[in-house]
């Protein structure tokens, strides 16, 4: 914009300068002709004087040149006005405005001119006598307002053109910017949804680099989606295939363990077999649940309006026996009714998982409390224990699949429980949050959007 203004100002100045130079040249040509005429009068006067006839130079020159300008003036070498003609008529009794500087300059032998405020050009030329003395100044006045009108028109055209050009440039740059940012935003949106594992077709109807990028992204999305689908299917198939042989192993080992057997060593092995097959069954069940999750879309869930407090109580009743057997006191604090929109089986599973951890990672004669809270637009099930706690650097990681904290090795587990809880909560628009202090206890909250 600034450079554009500089260009316009320069062009305007240049036009003004060259136009004025042209006018100046024209005036000089006119002045030369008038000087010639004046000199003729002078030479006639010299001849008349030689012949002894009286002659008034100024008067004769004015007579000859009176029509050679809008106004014509003759001065002597003392800057005294000797004659004046306006519009070709000689006027005797009028003293016009005189630009003295102009006359002085001319008397030094130069062409001199001044432009008045009403756009009249006063052009003065020195007239030399036979002794080469500047004894007269001839001044003629030209109206050059046409020049200013022309300059105004040029300026108008220049500014109008520049304005139009700026508007055109702005519109076209806006168009170009829109044309490039819109597809970039579209591609950005696509990559963001890819990162959330939501794959959709990416297509831009253009043949340039952006179009190629879109096509590449689309191919990548298809491959990624296929790969993830394959991976999920694989886990699901393997888990499923393992279920039947595992049930057989568990059945047989249980049979052997419970059977009559005197050998203590063998009995220990059978016991170990039962435990390990139990652990494997749990792992397979959790893997199956995860893969079912991965496959199911939000609409495939069987959701219903559920009282979270009631659901938490039901789950607590289910695990009470386990807590009792470890000498842990399980209390439910009576809270408000909090309605959420969830799949009840999955939600029970999530709460049971958190409770299972609380029992598993707590020592006997400690307490576990369950509380349902309402905070802003959220319903929260909070399960707090007085167990071994989780170190600060591991809190962020325990929600990851298969992650087990360092101090959890004494208790059995696969490291999948919390990640399943997290996914269940997220499936219904919620999330998990954990607070814990090593050696003091842990508080796990399942947050869900309130109905
Ligand atoms: N209440 C708790 N107190 C202390 N540590 C906990 C508690 N809950 C979870 N953790 C830590 O978080 C880790 C992950 O828990 P998660 O439930 O996912 O797995 P897990 O209990 O080890 O195995 P499982 O898959 O059988 O539940 C646990 O191994 C444990 O270290
Ligand atoms: Mg667990």
Question: What is the compact description of this entry?
Answer:
By secondary structure, this protein is α+β, with helices and mostly antiparallel strands. The mean pLDDT is 89. Helix 5 (209-258) packs antiparallel against helix 6.
Keywords:
single chain; 451 residues; alpha+beta; Beta-Lactamase; Helix Hairpins; Heat Shock Protein 90; 3 domains; 6-stranded antiparallel sheet; 5-stranded mixed sheet; 10 helices; 13 strands; 19% strand; binds adenosine-5'-triphosphate; binds magnesium ion; histidine kinase; HATPase_dom; Sig_transdc_His_kin-like_C; transmembrane helix; cell membrane
SSE inventory with pairings:
Elements lengths: L1 H49 L6 H9 L5 E6 L4 E6 L2 E3 L8 H8 L4 E4 L4 E9 L5 E10 L1 H51 L13 H50 L5 H32 L8 E4 H18 L3 E5 L5 E4 L1 H17 L6 E9 L2 E8 L6 H4 L21 H11 L3 E7 L3 E9 L2
Parallel strand pairs: 8-10
Antiparallel strand pairs: 1-2, 1-6, 2-3, 4-5, 5-6, 7-9, 10-11, 11-13, 12-13
The structure holds adenosine-5'-triphosphate and magnesium ion.
Magnesium ion binds next to α8.
Low-confidence stretches: none
Largest sheet: 6 strands, antiparallel
CATH class of the largest domain: Alpha Beta
Average pLDDT for all residues: 89
Helix and strand string, N-terminal first? HHEEEHEEEHHHEHEEHEEHHEE
Helix amount, in percent?
Answer: 55-70%
Membrane topology: Multi-pass membrane protein
Catalytic activity: ATP + protein L-histidine = ADP + protein N-phospho-L-histidine
Pfam families: HAMP (PF00672), HATPase_c (PF02518), HisKA (PF00512)
Keywords: ATP-binding, Cell membrane, Kinase, Membrane, Nucleotide-binding, Phosphoprotein, Transferase, Transmembrane, Transmembrane helix, Two-component regulatory system
């Amino acid at each position: 914009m600034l450079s554009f203004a500089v260009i316009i100002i320069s062009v305007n100045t240049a036009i003004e300068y060259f136009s004025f130079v042209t006018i100046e040249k024209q005036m000089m040509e006119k002045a030369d002709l008038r000087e010639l005429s004046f000199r003729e009068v002078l030479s006639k006067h010299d001849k008349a004087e030689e012949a002894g006839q009286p002659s008034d130079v100024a008067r004769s020159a004015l007579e000859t040149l009176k029509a050679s300008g809008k106004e014509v003036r003759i001065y002597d070498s003392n800057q005294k006005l000797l004659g004046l003609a306006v519009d070709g008529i000689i006027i005797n009794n009028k003293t016009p405005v005189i630009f003295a500087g102009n006359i002085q300059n001319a008397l030094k032998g130069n062409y001199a001119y001044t432009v008045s405020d009403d756009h009249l050009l006063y052009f003065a030329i020195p007239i030399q006598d036979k002794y080469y003395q500047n004894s007269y100044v001839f001044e003629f006045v030209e109206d050059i307002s046409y020049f200013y009108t022309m300059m105004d028109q040029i300026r108008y055209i220049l500014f109008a053109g520049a304005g139009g050009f700026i508007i055109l440039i702005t519109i076209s740059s806006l168009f170009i910017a829109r044309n490039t940012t819109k597809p970039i935003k579209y591609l950005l949106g696509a990559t963001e949804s890819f990162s959330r594992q939501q794959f959709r077709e990416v297509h831009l109807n253009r043949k340039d680099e952006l179009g190629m990028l879109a096509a590449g992204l689309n191919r990548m999305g298809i491959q990624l989606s296929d790969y993830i689908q394959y991976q999920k299917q694989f886990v699901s198939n393997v888990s499923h295939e393992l279920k039947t042989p595992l049930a057989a192993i568990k059945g047989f080992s249980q049979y052997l363990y419970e059977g009559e057997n005197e050998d203590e060593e063998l009995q220990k092995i059978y016991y170990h077999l039962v435990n390990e097959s139990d652990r494997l069954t749990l792992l397979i069940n959790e893997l199956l649940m995860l893969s079912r999750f991965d496959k199911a879309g939000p609409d495939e869930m069987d959701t219903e309006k559920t009282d979270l407090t009631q659901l938490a109580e039901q789950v607590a009743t289910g695990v009470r026996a386990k807590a009792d057997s470890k000498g842990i006191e399980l209390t439910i604090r009576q809270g408000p009714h909090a309605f959420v929109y969830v799949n009840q089986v999955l939600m029970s599973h999530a709460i049971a998982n958190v409770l299972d951890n609380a029992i598993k990672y707590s020592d006997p004669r400690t307490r576990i409390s369950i509380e349902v809270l309402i905070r802003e637009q959220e319903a929260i099930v909070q399960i707090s224990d007085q167990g071994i706690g989780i170190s600060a650097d591991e809190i962020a990681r325990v929600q990851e699949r298969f992650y087990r904290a360092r101090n959890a090795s004494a208790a059995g587990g696969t490291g999948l429980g919390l990640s399943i809880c997290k996914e269940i909560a997220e499936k219904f628009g919620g999330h998990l949050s954990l607070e814990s202090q090593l050696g003091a206890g842990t508080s796990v909250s399942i947050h869900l959007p309130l109905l």
